[in-house]
Design a protein that fits this description.
Elements (H helix, E strand, L loop, with lengths): L2 H4 L6 H23 L5 H8 L3 H29 L1 H20 L4 H29 L5 H30 L12 H7 L2 H11 L6 H6 L3 H11 L4 H12 L19 H15 L2 H14 L4 H29 L1 H25 L2 E3 L5 E3 L3 H19 L2 H11 L6 H29 L1 H22 L13
Antiparallel strand pairs: 1-2
Helix pairs in contact: 2-5, 2-6, 2-7, 2-9, 4-5, 4-6, 4-19, 5-6, 5-8, 5-9, 6-7, 6-18, 6-19, 7-8, 7-15, 7-18, 11-12, 13-18, 13-19, 13-20, 14-15, 15-16, 15-17, 16-17, 16-18, 16-20, 19-20
Length: about 475
């Protein structure tokens, strides 16, 4: 480590914030696309006459595209640049929004959802990578957390949009404008942020680390000069040193002694896995249908999802204020502890609620008034603890914990595993819920407890380190 690495950098906060904000718009679309399905689940299931297994696949099918998009995004970003990959993601979001709006059956809806998933997976990799690579070390955690803030804001806007459209028409399955059902308009609203993302991506410069890797040193110096007030030449030299031979990163570069991979790659993979195995996306994909199933009206259920989305935004802002002060590890440990307790309460409530048979033959737990209040509080506390910790901190860590040479590829692998884990949890939830909501939330509780042990033993602290210092 050089003396330059240890001296605090002088930088233009506004410029760094502007560039990070545009990149984080990919996170907004990521959140919007993954949450918009929430308000459509019941209407799509009833309109197309789908079984629990098939509606689960309709919801989770986008995650297959996410997995592929995340896996390919890192390699593609190393080849054509971060900004061009953002443009590709915006185009995929736009195509998916229009296709889902006009879907004629479950299978073409699945196909359009997969295309949108490609965009989500791509954005999930490119935004944290770009933000990490343009951010000064002292504020990199806060800027990196903007990805999660954008995600939860996208989730909130999608849930709010769903609730408003349903209130205008009377329900997600009712006709709205031009004779189209409301759930179709829910999908169509994504056209607006998709266009905004594509246009704004054209206004930001390429990552300086990508430019140095491609030999465009003068351009990289110009970009860094917009962000750093001093030390530009020293930072260029450090980037050159860590990029080494300038060879294109390949999957074999991730090989190592720990079960065939570098230990740091395994840390990224397990961070991604635990982030999903605690069941957070069950809340954002299925909460509306879940609350309706246990006795709430559609209007009340949609309102509750909006409240949950707003809660997520507030706690993410808290996380942004804390991540560079108390560090990534401590945030994760606090979050794991809180999630374990709140999920255990949900598991106990659902496991002990009396079962009733609905008119369609499905058997669901019926919550008492007190049980419903406790379940809602526990669900929102779970979102609080996730939103202040595992939501933002994992994306910050994935963007900064890998060294320059392997960052894009390793991040792509970790993000692909994250989407695979998300697919497994989201697809299995309807079947688990049919078996027992207590069993489903009991499993998520165990995963939350294991995540705490994992952080204590294996997750490194990256607070305050330059990207060039990562092993």
């Amino acid at each position: 480590m050089t003396d330059t690495d240890q001296r605090p950098e002088s930088f233009h906060t506004g410029q760094a914030l502007l560039l990070a904000s545009v990149a984080a718009l990919g996170g907004f679309l990521f959140g919007f696309d993954t949450a918009v399905i929430n308000g459509t689940v019941t209407a799509v299931r009833d309109g197309f006459g789908l079984s629990a297994g098939l509606i689960g696949f309709v919801v989770s099918s986008a995650l297959l595209g996410c997995m592929v998009g995340a896996f390919l995004a890192g390699k593609l970003a190393d080849r054509i640049g971060r900004v061009r990959v953002m443009l590709i993601a915006a185009a995929l979001f736009l195509i998916s929004a229009v296709g889902c709006t006009l879907a004629v059956g479950p299978w073409d809806l699945i196909a359009w959802r997969v295309i949108g998933g490609l965009g989500v997976g791509t954005a999930s990799v490119i935004a944290p990578a770009y933000i990490a690579e343009i951010s000064p070390a002292q504020i990199r955690g806060r800027l990196g957390s903007m990805q999660q803030l954008a995600i939860v804001t996208g989730i909130f806007v999608a849930l709010l949009s769903n609730a408003w459209l349903a209130s205008v028409s009377g329900g997600a399955g009712d006709a709205l404008w031009l004779g189209l059902e409301t759930w179709r308009w829910m999908f169509f609203t994504e056209v607006v942020p998709a266009l905004a993302y594509g246009m704004l991506a054209l206004t930001i410069p390429e990552s300086p680390r990508f430019l140095v890797k491609k030999g465009a040193t003068s351009k990289a110096r110009e970009v860094l000069g917009r962000i750093l007030e001093t030390g530009v030449d020293e930072r260029i030299a450090e980037i050159r040193r860590t990029l080494g031979s300038e060879a294109r990163t390949r999957l074999k570069d991730l090989r190592g002694p720990a079960l065939g991979l570098l230990p740091i790659v395994w840390v990224g993979i397990l961070l991604s896995t635990f982030q999903q195995f605690v069941g957070i996306n069950v809340i954002f994909y299925y909460s509306s249908a879940l609350w309706q199933a246990v006795g709430f009206t559609e209007s009340d259920a949609l309102t509750q999802t909006v409240i949950t989305g707003l809660t997520n935004i507030v706690v993410t802002i808290i996380a942004i204020a804390l991540v560079d002060k108390i560090g990534r590890r401590r945030l994760l440990m606090i979050g794991s502890s809180g999630m374990t307790v709140s999920l255990a309460v949900l598991a106990w409530i659902f496991a002990n609620a009396p079962l009733v048979e609905a008119a369609d033959g499905t058997i669901t737990p019926e919550l008492t008034d007190a049980g419903g209040v406790v379940a809602l509080l526990a669900a929102n506390l779970f979102v609080v603890f996730f939103g202040m910790s595992w939501g933002p901190a994992v994306w910050v860590l994935l963007g900064e914990m890998f060294n320059n040479r392997i960052r894009a590829t390793a991040l792509g692998v970790a993000a692909a595993v994250q989407w695979l884990a998300n697919f497994a949890i989201s697809t299995s939830f309807p079947a688990l819920a049919d078996l027992s909501l207590g069993v489903a939330y009991g499993f998520y509780t165990i995963c939350a407890a294991l995540s705490l042990l994992f952080v204590i033993r294996w997750v490194p602290e990256t607070k305050g380190k330059q990207l060039e210092q990562m092993d």
